[in-house]
Design a protein that fits this description.
About 55% of the residues lie in helices and about 15% in strands. It is an alpha+beta fold. The chain is globular. Pfam families: Thioredoxin_5.
Length: about 200
Amino acid sequence: MLEAYLFVDPLCNDCFKAEHVILKLANDLDKNFSFQFIPMLNMQIIRNRYLSSGKQLKNEGKNFKVEYGTVLDYKAALFQGRKCGRKFLIGIQKELLHNNIIYSKQIAFKVAEEAGLDLEMFEEDRRSDLAINAFKADQKLANEMNVKVPASAVIFNCDTFESGILMNRVTYSDLLDVCQKNGLLKDTPLIKNGNISPNLHVI
């Protein structure tokens, strides 16, 4: 079985697309593929996102506070299960990225309800020490796996754990390539002695 860690900036369109690539592959592979969406956030990530979009970043402190709150809400949603957490994350991204809604507590609770969360528990968890510590653990994990930019994924074969593969840009074709090499596609012959894509790095 493969396990993938996709590192995401919730307000990044590339991350939103990468999440759906992972979801499609998980659906295609059924039980052979486990995955988690791990939030990444710091001021450099925010600056780079604004720079790439051509927008001017104003009031960095306020921007970070709002986006940090978004990530903590996602961590709080995850406490009620990975599936609920993913529904919350994707719902929030649709509101912020596609509908251009400004993040607020009202939007958070609207999406939380749509994701089937226990709202009383969500309120208790969203600014808790547990959520804050979980976020810190995610940043430590990104550092340990040498992940520098959002929309990167690290993939492990759970049967060996000898090494992981870092993908700086998640594509469906590269993910399929990794799965073929690990024998997870029953209807597709294994690729033997194939070259690793320039997008893949053994860590």
